[in-house]
Design a protein that fits this description.
The chain has about 50 residues and is mainly α. It has one domain. The protein has two helices and no strands.
Length: about 50
């Protein structure tokens, strides 16, 4: 599954572009992507490869 966020500072707020793996939670910053990612992580089984 891929979700694309684009367009403004809300999606980029606090994002760390040096971390580029889905498992690096700090790479999402503090905007909308972290809210979506945290909810998806709750629903995805732990042994799922991201």
């Amino acid at each position: 599954m891929k979700i694309v966020f684009f367009g403004d500072s809300i999606t980029e707020m606090g994002r760390n572009r040096e971390l580029n793996k889905p498992s690096d939670i700090e790479s999402y910053g503090s905007g909308f992507p972290i809210f979506v990612a945290s909810n998806l992580y709750k629903k995805i089984p732990k042994n799922t490869k991201l």
